[in-house]
């Protein structure tokens, strides 16, 4: 069963009438992970924001976005607000901009959870502490009393994941969650995202231009180029026998980069072509 | 060619009256030969970018010496035109009021080139980094990330430097563009016989471009190893880094 069905999604700029995403359709099955790959400007982030209905008012969208059978585009803003966070979670690229810079992280976390659940302050804190410990954040209490600028990008990203863990949404949209991180933090964040999927059984949309990460996490892959879907299919199929020329171009570039590394590592983890 | 000995650097911790100092680099030794590509690998906060700035002479070390062709890098005359840099943030690397032409011309003027000679050289450089003449009158905001980075590389190569410091030069680029820029760097390195100090957190990119890699952790050199021997690294930290590469 599909958690999310997107049919003929079009996004265009109402000022210039420029078409940004041209009729993309895809679906996310319950519990599976769909990766959207493509270069910058291919409309990956716009698609994510369109699902959350967070695009600027200057951008118009048409088509159908069905979340568990319900058309998101027909909901009022108030109903949509209740969906965001509780049922669909968005994890963005830049953790620094995701949190309110004027208050400590804990305030933001408590506020978010309090809008969706009527738990007492103590219960929220206990659950949050447990979640933060499970994503390998030591001293959760201390972290909750820090401002976003005092924490590193990787930590903020893991706090977002911890929050998602407490909210237990049906769908998580991770928009380039590892791009702003270094290799070590990126690896840890991906591990945590995989654990999160295992623990809550939620579906995920994972947006990235890094095929290495995609290969590790995704079940299905959607390739976008200049606002259009060029190819979609199971992850192993995209990596081994891509049909579209553009996909092959992306995959071959990725292989060229990792080839030398695999070679010097003695072919231990040679990426299967 | 480049010799770094016992370099240490500390910064004042944040806060107006704070007296505490944070040790960013401690006791760094390494050397880089003519035409060699040395990768400096480390996670964020390991001090690798600070090391890059010290080598460029933008900042001075608290202790130790950095010698470039036998002379200290803090003396501008010794390094003028010989060490160039390409930084990560391509949006702030070129003066936004400058055209591509003006940006590259600036470094050509530095080596005393002007007139028709400079103009020809400019076309040649643009061609070498895979851009054509039509880019001359463009401003940085009209270009894509990969294109700006190419202009930065052309600007860095313009003075025929002996060494280029590449501080995360490909990290903000897309996967496939990353590859194109790496290929360009590799090819330029061979034509000009320059040495590179390739500062990055991406081991795969380092393995692609470098002859040797130096792994830095918390301001100290953990291990230096030739790329061919990468799988035989000894230290626990280096092994951990290798295990975290997502192929």
Automatic annotation (TrEMBL), chain A:
It is found in: Cell membrane. It is a peripheral membrane protein. Pfam families: ABC_tran. GO terms for cellular component: plasma membrane. The keyword Cytoplasm does not apply. Gene3D superfamilies: P-loop containing nucleotide triphosphate hydrolases. Its main location: membrane. Keywords: ATP-binding, Cell membrane, Membrane, Nucleotide-binding, Transport. This is ABC transporter ATP-binding protein. It comes from Brevibacillus parabrevis.
UniProtKB/TrEMBL annotation, chain B:
SMART domains: AAA. SUPFAM superfamilies: P-loop containing nucleoside triphosphate hydrolases. GO terms for biological process: transmembrane transport. Residues 2-243 form the ABC transporter domain. One of its GO terms (molecular function) is ATP binding. InterPro entries: AAA+_ATPase (IPR003593), ABC_transp_ATP-bind (IPR050319), ABC_transporter-like_ATP-bd (IPR003439), P-loop_NTPase (IPR027417). Keywords: ATP-binding, Nucleotide-binding, Transport. PROSITE patterns: ABC_TRANSPORTER_2 (PS50893). Belongs to the ABC transporter superfamily. This is ABC transporter ATP-binding protein.
């Amino acid at each position: 069963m599909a958690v999310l069905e997107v049919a003929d999604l079009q996004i265009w700029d109402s000022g210039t009438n420029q078409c940004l995403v041209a009729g993309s359709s895809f679906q996310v099955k319950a519990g599976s992970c769909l990766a959207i790959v493509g270069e910058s400007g291919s409309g990956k982030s716009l698609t994510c924001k369109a699902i959350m209905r967070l695009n600027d008012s200057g951008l118009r969208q048409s088509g159908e976005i069905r979340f568990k059978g319900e058309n998101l585009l027909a909901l009022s803003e108030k109903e949509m607000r209740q969906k965001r966070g509780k049922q669909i979670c968005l994890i963005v690229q830049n953790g620094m901009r995701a949190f309110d810079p004027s208050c400590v992280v804990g305030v933001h976390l408590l506020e978010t959870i309090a809008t969706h659940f009527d738990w007492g302050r103590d219960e929220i804190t206990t659950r949050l502490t447990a979640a933060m410990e499970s994503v390998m954040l030591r001293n959760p209490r201390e972290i909750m009393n820090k401002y976003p600028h005092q924490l590193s990008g990787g930590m903020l990203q893991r706090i977002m994941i911890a929050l998602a863990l407490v909210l237990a949404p049906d769908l998580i949209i991770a928009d380039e969650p590892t791009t702003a991180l270094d290799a070590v933090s990126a690896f840890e964040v991906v591990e945590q995202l995989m654990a999160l999927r295992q623990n809550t059984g939620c579906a995920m949309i994972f947006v990235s231009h890094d095929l290495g990460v995609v290969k590790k996490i995704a079940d299905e892959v959607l390739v976008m180029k200049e606002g259009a879907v060029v190819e979609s299919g199971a992850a192993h199929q995209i990596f081994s026998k891509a049909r579209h020329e553009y996909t092959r171009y992306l995959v071959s570039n990725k292989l060229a980069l990792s080839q030398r590394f695999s070679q010097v590592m003695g072919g231990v983890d040679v990426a299967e072509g | 060619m480049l010799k770094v000995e016992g370099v240490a650097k500390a910064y004042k911790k944040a806060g107006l009256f704070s007296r505490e100092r944070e040790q960013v680099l401690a006791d760094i030794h390494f050397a880089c030969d003519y035409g060699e590509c040395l990768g400096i690998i480390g996670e964020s906060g390991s001090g690798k970018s600070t090391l890059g700035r010290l080598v460029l002479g933008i900042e001075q070390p608290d202790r130790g010496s950095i010698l470039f062709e036998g002379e200290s890098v803090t003396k501008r005359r010794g390094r003028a035109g010989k060490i160039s840099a390409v930084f990560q943030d391509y949006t702030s690397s070129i003066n936004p009021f400058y055209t591509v032409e003006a940006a590259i011309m600036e470094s050509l003027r530095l080596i005393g080139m002007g007139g028709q000679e400079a103009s020809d050289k400019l076309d040649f450089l643009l061609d070498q980094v895979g851009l054509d003449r039509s880019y001359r009158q463009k401003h940085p905001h009209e270009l894509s990330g990969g294109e700006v980075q190419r202009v930065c590389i052309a600007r860095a190569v313009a003075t025929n430097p002996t060494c280029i410091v590449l501080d995360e030069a490909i990290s903000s680029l897309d996967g496939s563009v990353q590859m194109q820029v790496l290929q360009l760097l590799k090819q330029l390195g061979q034509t000009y016989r320059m040495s590179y100090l390739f500062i990055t957190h991406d081991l795969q990119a380092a393995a692609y471009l470098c002859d040797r890699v130096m792994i830095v952790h918390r301001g100290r050199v953990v291990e230096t190893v030739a790329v061919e021997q990468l799988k035989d690294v000894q230290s626990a930290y280096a092994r951990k880094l290798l295990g975290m590469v997502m192929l």
